[in-house]
Amino acid sequence: DLDNDSLQAFYMVQEALDGADEALGLGLGSVNWDAEGLLIKDVGTPVEAGDAVTKAYADAIAAAAGNVPTPDNPGDDTKVLTASGGTFTWQAASSSVITTRGDVVRGDAAGAAERLALGASGTVLTSDGTDAAWANIGTMTTQGDMIRGGASGAAERLPIGANTEILMSDGTDADWVEWSYESGHLHGALLSQDADADHDINVIGFECRDRANSANIIYNGEITKQLDATWAAGDDAGGLSSSLTAPAVDTWYHIFAIIVGGSADVGFDTDVDAANLIADHTATAYRRIGSILTDASANIIDFYMIGDIFLWKVPVQDFSDNNPGTAAVDRVLSTPLGYRISSLVAYSLFDAFTVEATYTYGLIASKDTTDTAASITVHNLTCGTGDGGDDDVGTSVIEVPTNTSSTVRSRVNRSSTNITLKGTTYGWRDNLGRMH
Questions:
Q1: Are 156 and 150 in contact (CB under 8 A)?
Q2: For 29, left (φ over 0), alpha (ψ -120 to 50), or beta?
Q3: Strands (DSSP E) along 128-262, which ranges?
């Protein structure tokens, strides 16, 4: 009987261990329940926030109004997600499926999603306020073409503008217009004599507004033009207007930036308004950028340019007048004819015998001013010591504007054969039409 009792107890322990193996328990070394990959059945309806739920309960929540359903492949391929009454639904586009790269989705007349096929090459997506559609604006043919609204408001092609043009609005339309420098603008155009110093002028690149304020003249780089050859386009070419035939002696030639055949260039003319270049070579725009003078051999007199100052390499004595008297005298200077410029002249007033113990006064003035006698109160040149010394001289470099005949006025307060007035021109200041 003792053996039977022991065997019976062993069976009971064995059954208990088998039941424990099949029961939901804690994971080994863990405080979490471990179902060991088995399903949990017959879960009740959750009440508390931490209660477990069944699959059916979770599916019902996912399908509730306002939640986004997961598409069921492959049936939902190419469908679009739409909303209606607070519920999201996967549905096919009303026209057809998206078939082509570049297709877009738009709303149809009823507000449902539909496919808008990719437009043709060169068309753009536009709106007429009611619908969106691809519109033909003209073929884009050139790099830089743009799109603007046409007269009816439809999109259209605006071809790229010309060089230096800018896009500008007139309040009604947008278009390319020439960008213009301000009136009188001049930059660059440094002049110098080239290898053939007697006949050739080199001009460093320039940008300027023309005399009529109607066009820009722009030349990049440097250009050399020949005074002793008939004008031809381009660098190292003739520059003299053809009707002038050859350089003349003791003649002023004006250097012009010009436009001929749509291209910027440089030419020489004796006319202050480039009339010969216009008539002979159909120059459509011009702007003076300097002036040169020839000598008795028709060669260019040596000069150099610093900013807007032109200086003779060898100063020119334009007059030496003994006993000039007290009346006004016109003095013609070696400065450009045809333009009002500021002359740079050294004037010397000599008094060879001043025993009278008095001063001699001179006045150099523009012809545009009122003719005024030289005096102790009105003068810009003087000589004498007031003590009766001999051979007194006074010298001063005076900048005076000329008239278009290269002329200024001189006055001396005393008349005597001992008095001599001299003028030596060093150069001139020329703003070349700039606006200041």
A1: yes
A2: left
A3: 132-136, 146-149, 155-158, 165-169, 174-178, 186-188, 191-193, 200-209, 216-230, 237-240, 252-260
- Buried b / exposed e over 141-170, threshold 16 CB at 10 Å, is eeeeeeeeeeeeeebbbbeebeeeeeeeee
The first and second tokens of residue 10, run together, are 């062993």
Q: What is the mean pLDDT of residues 245-260?
A: 96
Q: Write the DSSP string, 246-264.
A: SPPTT-EEEEEEEEETTEE
Q: What is the pLDDT of residues 279-288, one digit of tens each?
A: 999 999 999 9
State whether residue 387 is helix, strand or coil. coil
* Six-digit token string for 6: 């022991």
C-alpha span between 92 and 199 (Å, rounded): 85
d(C-alpha 364, C-alpha 374), whole Å: 9
299: left (phi over 0), alpha (psi -120 to 50) or beta: beta
Write the pLDDT tens digit of every residue in 332-344. 999 999 999 999 9
pLDDT given for residue 404 in this prediction:
96
Beta strands at 407-412 and 329-332: parallel, antiparallel or unpaired: antiparallel
Cβ pair 286, 258 in contact under 8 A:
yes
